[in-house]
């Protein structure tokens, strides 16, 4: 399928799948591929992309059959090698489709459409592995538009692009880009931060960034062993830093200021009591990294965490880079980041051996993120379906990824003329409880350490304090409201296919292949099981869905459609699917 | 630095040390409750209803700018330590609010020591003067009491975990477990205890959150039910009254099939612990929806108009009022509510942003107060919580994470017009004793000590409080009962 002609619908919807990311399998040859290879392909693609599609499953299954040892590594290699073009970048697209002087577009619409474009990219980008990695990184290095940054749509587009561009690069380069991005400068108030007594008679450096860069972006609160378990001394955990260390690091992160002449400038409207943004009509200024103002920078000597001295009289950029580099090679960083990434891609509770294997790659490659990601996806704990049968295996699928998966697997199309998605996307945050780069705080939508109440919390009571308890981060946003609203939203989308006027608040799935199988319920279930659960649906769930499908007599075309929709909806809310294993 | 507890102690030991002694046969009782056989064990009389509402100011409210000592010398010291008055036009400058902007109050219990409220809190003045609202000063998470900076520095091992960090301090405010990371909160544990005296069929509505999952209301058996201010939601296309048999339309067949399938899936037996947890949460959400749906059909406060454009907090408080009004004559006799308000982490733009948020908070609370019937007022206590206060010294744009902070409690039963706790004397010498750096003040009351009168008012006994609700407090604070307390409620209302 080609991109639609209308630039507007592309920009806003971003919903047309591009078949370019894998050579679409010839359906004739696909028939020879065994079910098992297809299941392996689907399971892998659901870990590595924003949702497996039939075409990609078929194509990868053929490769798996031909070259079982190398097919997945080859796939990763191809994804990594795909060049980034302008149309892959959100800011470029946004600028192209919505120049600042675009007629009849108010400021609020620009904001909504930037959000829609950012999110839509996840569904239709041909660079799926990179997209998924950028999305994962955005949940570790958190900047959120739920606040004033909502008024900086270009900034948020650029932040997403920055993660995208750095997704396969080195960790220290990524962290430097994170540190100097103006959105981060705003979000964690490092922009404008100045040495003591610079801003007022007894002011001192802002500690915000210094704290979070350690707690959340690199080393965490407690020293970790190479396998991600806690270091223990005299029966106790060992804090990685104390407040004196933060005070010292706060002095390092002084001197960053917003770039001169950014396109967007935060401007407080005191009367309206809201943050509005001034858009420079001369829209050619690039949204660059923050700049350095040496007058603000504290250039005295400082002490780093390990007691070593940071020499005096260094320019801000040099010293900040030095500290970023030191944090990147801190012994806790490799296991901390490795574990966090494994949680985003594969499982909430990786074994120590898994974390160690990935952290070793992190260390040996100097934090080469493409190598780290390869190690995560190809480790036996990710690849062996038997491991996935363990009682504590897997993770709750992120609701946003359930949504993108549905859109990709069932070839979603916008259901109305633009700008339908712009208003629609505002609902997604409340119905799904999640939207890219829209978390309530720097702590993301959920903490990596979240323990869902009930059975899991109870089991954890017998876990010593010095060991990691069983966690389920994504459960933090699964509660009585989202547990109902997410299925309701999926049902609305599944049902929208049928409606004459689906309206501006939804999208339409192409359930043609499923409707075609609806008079053969066993085959329908096999199709859906492969697309969604990667062939892992339990017999009991299959029986439940089959019974429901069979309860709708197949006397008419309308009834066949209902059967397909029923099966898709039930599979998408089944525990077998919602827990990705 | 060490982070006791000693070797080999597990969370279960740690949290349960004395719980069983206090509860008696915990296991048996909870089994009975689960089976519904004891649904009316010790049920309270109709009309004996009490609810608490926790308003959590997320991010650490700069409470040294919400309650300000305004006597001549103290105010002068306040302006000094906050870096002078803010010059609204210039970058930088201090964080002190001008004296003429402050809303004056005079606590009954500290004659001769006047205070000023942040101008955004102006509606609190009459609530305070009329005796419905009090402040409690200098509260924070404490693992051991520290008298002064010397003791604090000498006993590094006794600092709360992750002192000054949002995530840990938010957690400890909710758990009262400052020396471990627990997923169980004090309100959850308290409601586990109080559940014994309530109708068990309604247990899923005991703790209601308007801000998603939270640790505070997560107990061993009672977990938060989350609601939106715009009402309850149940599963769409799910209806047990629709039958799909002969004569049914296609749409009825689909609904009946879907309903049966969803029911079967969510009650299924799953080998994976996360699958079980997911199914249980989904089933619980739908079951509770069906229960509450009837209760909340009518708006019991039609005069209180809120729209989508009303502040979210006001919408939430109105929804709380509706739930309370629906329940205070039902089998539910004790409830907790949780509302989190984001945006208090003001490292920058402190003065403007805080003014906006506080005036929104006070405005919503004033409406909540004014719309409550007087009988309800006496049954409801609203209290604030927050990660920590912020540094007295500024960073030129705002302030950073600190420790002890000031809070307010509102209710018909509250002994209003007081500033309880120990508001630090604003003078160089006395503040230096308890300022561990940049104006981070050692709390004079721990979170347990702050909420102790609130939980007593709810009807939790000392035995249950120290045995179950505040695990480890007794040992950490010297073995006796509560170390410090204060008369938060009017005599005769406890």
Please explain how this structure is put together.
- The complex is a heterodimer of chains A (581) and B (494).
- Chain A is mainly α.
- Chain A has 27 helices and 12 strands.
- The longest helix of chain A has 18 residues.
- In chain A, 58% of the residues are buried.
- The N terminus of chain A is likely disordered.
- Chain B is an alpha/beta fold and 494 residues long.
- Chain B has 2 domains: 355 residues, Alkaline Phosphatase, subunit A; 64 residues, no CATH class.
- Chain B is globular.
- The chains are: A mainly alpha (581), B alpha/beta (494).
- At the A-B interface, helix 12, strand 2, helix 13, strand 9 and helix 21 of A face helix 1, helix 7, strand 7, helix 9 and helix 10 of B.
Helix content of chain A: 40-55%
Strand fraction band of chain B? 5-15%
Overall, the morphology of chain A is: globular
What is the topology, as strand order, of the major beta sheet of chain A? 1-2
Q: What general outline of chain B do the C-alpha atoms trace?
A: globular
Mean pLDDT rating of chain B:
87
Short description:
The complex is a heterodimer of chains A (581) and B (494). Chain A is 49% helix and 6% strand.
Topology:
The complex is a heterodimer of chains A (581) and B (494).
Chain A lengths: L6 H7 L13 H4 L4 H14 L5 H13 L4 H11 L8 H8 L9 H18 L3 H10 L15 H14 L4 H10 L1 H6 L20 H8 L16 E2 L2 E2 L5 H10 L3 E2 L6 E6 L4 E6 L11 E2 L9 E2 L5 E2 L5 H13 L4 H13 L6 H13 L4 H10 L1 H4 L11 E2 L2 H11 L3 E2 L5 H13 L22 H6 L19 H17 L10 E2 L3 H5 L4 H13 L5 H12 L6 H17 L1 H4 E2 L1
Antiparallel strand pairs in A: 1-2, 3-6, 4-5, 7-8, 9-12, 10-11
Chain B lengths: L10 H6 L2 H5 L2 H10 L14 E8 L9 E3 L2 H10 L21 E3 L9 E3 L6 H6 L3 E8 L8 H6 L11 H10 L10 H9 L12 E3 L15 E2 L23 H17 L6 H23 L16 H16 L6 E8 L8 H22 L2 H4 L2 E7 L18 E7 L7 E3 L6 H7 L10 E2 H12 L3 H8 L3 H4 L18
Parallel strand pairs in B: 1-8, 1-9, 5-11, 5-12, 6-7, 6-8
Antiparallel strand pairs in B: 2-4, 3-4, 5-10, 9-10
Helix pairs in contact in B: 8-16, 11-12
